[in-house]
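Project outcomes to date are best conveyed with an example. Our students and postdoctoral researchers have been running inverse folding experiments weekly, and each run begins with a structure described purely in tokens. The record below, which covers 409 residues, was selected by the lab manager from last quarter's runs and is presented without edits.
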């Protein structure tokens, strides 16, 4: 005799299954690349010793990339002694499940190892090596399906500290920024690696920015930065919509632009600061709305919350700006430089390169409010990786180690 299961129960079971992975983080700095993670029910303050450590995993070699988390699996990359880059796959409790070598990474005087954070799209993982290799990996077969060196394909030289961009998957395309005359920004077919489009007219070396997509008056815009420009590109055709010159010391741009209500915010370190560009109604041109040198963020990310920008300055202070006007709401030296992300109403700042402290801060334009602080004691090399938050855990990658902290309320 067959047992009939009421539809309401089936629906509830499906809803629970979907909710189990609602906090997935399939790419660098969250699903939208804006540093915001879809998590709820997290602690609003930490005990004196910090949140409890759920687990520690080690043996990931040299690397400064973050982790991505999809359907209970954790992915990160590192470089072994033979200069080979590896994708490491962990279970939700930190046990190593797989190790996929993909290609050579970089040995650099300032920062050797893997930099790009994996992007997960279905059963495929996409990663960019520091020396220009775009790799597509089949996670079921655990093998590289195709690879393309975009620096070679588009005839452009590498930049001083090598490529650090994390790839953007948009529909059937994987997007990156090789730079140069032939491919300032390019889209590759995510199944084959063939070139779909290449943006002309930028004619500049790339930088260290991971592209994001915004929607302005119903039009999608790809936003990124090269060595000397903030740029807007049509993500469907690759047409250059506009570019705005912004000069920084050493040509370092490392912060993804932020869109809000017709404005595009950008920032650079070394006292270059940033500002907001006002988009035309059709998004084909920009004009300067305001500029600022207080928040000269180097590569640590900036977060927009309720109309206010929060980030750390290259000169060593934590800053709050009003997005609409550029007004400095407050600054503090309680936090100097750190990767900043957001979840469930709170900011998480991982301070480096030497400090290794993690702060929990309430975003408030009225003033600085820290509600938690601890120090990362595991790991090697500089504290540079951006935090990831998924499924109630705060993931801190510190060189050879990955530490998961339970931040669930």
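After processing, the design step wrote out the following sequence:
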């Amino acid at each position: 005799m067959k047992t009939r299961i009421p539809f309401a129960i089936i629906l509830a079971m499906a809803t629970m299954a979907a909710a189990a992975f609602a906090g997935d983080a399939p790419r660098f700095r969250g699903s939208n690349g804006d540093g915001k993670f879809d998590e709820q029910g997290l602690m609003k303050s930490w005990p004196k010793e910090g949140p409890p450590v759920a687990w520690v995993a080690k043996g990931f070699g040299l690397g400064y990339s973050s982790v991505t988390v999809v359907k209970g699996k954790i992915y990160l990359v590192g470089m072994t002694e033979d200069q080979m880059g590896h994708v490491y796959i962990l279970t939700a409790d930190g046990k190593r499940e797989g190790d996929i070598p993909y290609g050579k990474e970089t040995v650099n005087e300032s920062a050797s190892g893997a930099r790009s954070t994996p992007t997960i799209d279905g059963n495929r993982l996409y990663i960019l090596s520091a020396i220009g290799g775009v790799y597509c990996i089949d996670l079921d077969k655990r093998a590289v399906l195709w690879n393309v060196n975009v620096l070679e394909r588009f005839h452009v030289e590498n930049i001083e500290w090598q490529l650090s961009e994390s790839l953007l998957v948009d529909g059937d395309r994987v997007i990156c920024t090789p730079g140069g005359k032939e491919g300032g920004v390019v889209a590759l077919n995510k199944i084959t690696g063939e070139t779909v489009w290449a943006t002309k007219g930028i004619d500049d070396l790339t930088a260290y920015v991971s592209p994001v997509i915004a929607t302005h008056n119903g039009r999608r815009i790809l936003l990124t930065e090269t060595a000397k420009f903030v740029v807007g590109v049509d993500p469907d055709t690759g047409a250059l919509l506009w570019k705005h010159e912004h000069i920084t010391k050493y040509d370092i741009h490392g912060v993804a632009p932020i869109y809000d209500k017709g404005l595009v915010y950008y920032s650079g370190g070394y006292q270059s600061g940033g500002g907001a560009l006002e988009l035309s109604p059709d998004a084909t041109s920009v004009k300067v709305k305001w500029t600022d040198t207080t928040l000269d963020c180097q590569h640590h990310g900036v977060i927009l919350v309720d109309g206010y920008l929060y980030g750390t300055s290259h000169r060593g202070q934590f800053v709050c700006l009003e997005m609409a006007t550029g007004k400095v709401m407050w600054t503090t030296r309680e936090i100097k430089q750190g990767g900043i992300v957001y979840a469930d109403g709170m900011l998480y700042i991982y301070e480096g390169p030497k400090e290794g402290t993690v702060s929990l801060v309430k975003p408030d334009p009225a003033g600085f409010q820290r509600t938690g602080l601890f120090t990362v004691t595991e790991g090697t090399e500089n504290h540079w990786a951006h935090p990831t938050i998924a499924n109630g855990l705060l993931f801190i990658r510190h060189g050879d180690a990955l530490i998961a902290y339970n931040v669930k309320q």
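The mean pLDDT is 94. Helices lie at 7-20, 150-153. The training component of this project remains on track.
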